[in-house]
Amino acid sequence: MDYALFIGCQIPARLQSYEVSARKVLSEALGIGLIDIKEFNCCGYPVRNFDYNAFVLASARNLALAEKEDLDIIALCSCCYGSLKKVEYLLKKDQALKEWANQILDKEGLQYNGTTKARHFLSVFYHDVGIDAIAEKISRPFKDLRIATHYGCHALRPSEVVDFDDPVNPSVFDKLVEVTGAESVSWSMQLECCGAPVSGVNDRLSMDLMEKKIKNAQQADADYLCTACPYCQMQFDTVQSNTRARRGGNHLLPSIIYPQLLGLSMGMDPAELKIEENQIPILPITQFLSG
Question: pTM here?
Answer without folding.
Answer: 0.96
